[in-house]
Amino acid sequence: FRSVPTILYSAHTRDGLRAVLPLARSGVHQVVFRGFDDTRERLRALLDQVAVSLLGERLLDVILPRLVAVGAPAEVVQAVARLYRAPPAFRTVHQLATVAGRQRGQLDRWMLKAGLAPTKVVMLAARVAWTYHYLRAPGNRFKTLALRLGYPDVVGLGRHVKWMTGMTPTQLRRSVGADELIATLLRRIVR
To answer: From residue 18, how far is each of 15, 22, 31, 56, 113 by CA, in Å?
Structure first.
């Protein structure tokens, strides 16, 4: 099933490549080759990316149909989808607008037309969903998460989490389930 995130682990040999090609065409999201790019950090990053994308996909299930319904350009829809699948790739709204091939104001107008919050809020929701996933995993430090998302320190990310959810990162980690977080974020995103 293409909708199921899949990571393929294979040998970097002729036979391994022959096995990978048909699977890649059928929807494998990532391929890791044994002895080539299978470092512990790479594997952890891929697994985390798959897990966090599931939260993002639930939010996208609401956001993307709204954008499509108002006739948003494909570039805008694709940029928003990329944002929710890999929030660390976008540090600013201007970067998102550039990927969408639009000015920031144009992006905000498409969001407004679709009944969504301004682009900055939509971006913060993606970051908070990503942060929530990483906070739930033991051993992840908030400072590391803030740095990955492009914040110079934890204060900025902490403020954004509090503003989006009404909770501190510690409260978010301890007392909120995924469904509750999705509902909270959707209340902030959907107008």
So the answer is: 5, 8, 13, 32, 47
